[in-house]
Design brief:
nine-stranded mixed beta sheet; 103 residues; 0% helix; mainly beta; OB fold (Dihydrolipoamide Acetyltransferase, E2P); 9 strands
Amino acid sequence: MRLPIDTQTVKFAAAGPAEPVLDYETRSPKVDENGTALFNVPLFAAGSGIKDSISVKVAGEPKGLSEFTPVKVTNLIASTWEVGTNHGVSFRADRIELVKASA
């Protein structure tokens, strides 16, 4: 199941730098359907009564991320998965970018 997430009421901050997504067996970098490298971005999420950390996959490496860097997440989708007896939720976004400081 794929569920879109409304990010308007949630603030996000990077929990560290983006890391390449690697194929489990070959350890080579994974790419999306357009051939763009995938990256995992650890994020802190807070707002509307929630405080949590998640890892979000995004195509292309978001630049300039370090701990507590405020970011904007575009088109965040939660997907459930199941492999054998294991199951969980993964997150994917179209874009993760730095929040520009207001003057």
